[in-house]
Model the fold of this input.
Amino acid sequence: MPHGFTLPQVKYYPEGKGFARVELYYTAGEKWLLIVQWKAENQGIGYSFDTDDTVVSDVAVRGNPGKLYYRQSNGGYSQLTWAEGDRNYRIGGAIGPSEIERVASSLRQLN
Done:
């Protein structure tokens, strides 16, 4: 986690119809970061973005293909999405793309 971030909010949506979701909302002053993990059967990952000022890159997160979106306007916003096994992940927030990638690489799966 980037230095200075705290975890003021956690949301859990229990499994139902093959879908369970956890949201972790971190803050550090004006910066924020949302980490979402969901176990989803037969669901893909999608994200809408403004094509005028968003840079999209293909990245790898622990060997899994992902998409990194970075928007510089309005103070900057980054989002990273990927699937790993039977779980989908999304990390987004008002931090830079390299920080988002470091956070994603540091996540560990708990069973």
Summary: The chain has a mean pLDDT of 85. The CA atoms of residues 9 and 25 lie 5 Å apart.
